[in-house]
């Protein structure tokens, strides 16, 4: 009789627990009330497909506890996690498959979808129902990409062009994510996989335009990545590959200029920047690089002059320091050209801005 009263009391207490009350207003995802969901902020687009790679923020809570027992919200960079491989909780994987990009949701996972009857001592007690708040930041559908790279080269050659381009774009998107996280070596490998794939494509003339457009994007990504890796010669090579496909591409011209600048090939850098400026006259990055080039070239010529004076000039000449000026027609012409061009660009930008303001743009 006493045991029955105790059991009834425990049941009533359980019914009035915060998680029980919360679960009553939540959506039953699995049909057995094992995974319950409440949307806090709706997302947009398609739901997460199986085998996707996801980017999430999450916090896990035990009942009656304010602090999370597990969270990644305080990390600066969030890593991509592969569904079916990197997610350890069955309930979380099921819940993620119901979410859309940008969605913030709250989930309750019963023990069989979380840590089981044994729990995870000492952190998680036995038979614990846990609450997770999950924000889906982004996801990449890598199913086709994974399938493609598991095939033999002969099987890959039979893939339709549309699917090949999609696989290459997926690899590039992976590279972009890794680049934003400043994992430049890993980003480079993703871009190179995309590049290798596109270089093997044999497309009809009508479809070659799409292939070339995809190649240009990857070559530009590789050029920028090699600049970050402080390998300007490789950056220049990929910038020039992009220019072979589109000789007026301003971004490719700019990347080549940056690479030449790093290689101290100042005149080539100037030539690339002038061509880039012709395509995009009001691009601040290009104009600022021209000013930077002028300043750097002047300092370079001063150092060259100083070195020559020390090597060949009189050792105790009192006028040696006075002669440390940039002289010679070619350096002066180069420098004056850059300085005048930079000032004209600033003036042009100011005039253009004034004109737009007068027109109410």
Automatic annotation (TrEMBL):
Residue ranges annotated for the PPIase FKBP-type domain, each copy included: 51-140
Pfam family, one: FKBP_C
Alphabetized UniProt keyword annotations: Isomerase, Repeat, Rotamase, TPR repeat
Highest taxon listed in the record's lineage: Eukaryota
Taxonomic lineage from the root: Eukaryota, Metazoa, Chordata, Craniata, Vertebrata
Name used for this protein in its record: peptidylprolyl isomerase
Catalysed reaction, written as an equation: [protein]-peptidylproline (omega=180) = [protein]-peptidylproline (omega=0)
Family: Belongs to the FKBP6 family.
GO biological process, one term: transposable element silencing by piRNA-mediated DNA methylation
Any one GO cellular component localisation term in the record: microtubule cytoskeleton
GO MF annotation list: Hsp90 protein binding; identical protein binding; peptidyl-prolyl cis-trans isomerase activity
The keyword Repeat appears for this protein: yes
TPR repeats mapped onto the chain: 216-249
EC number: 5.2.1.8
UniProt source species: Podarcis muralis
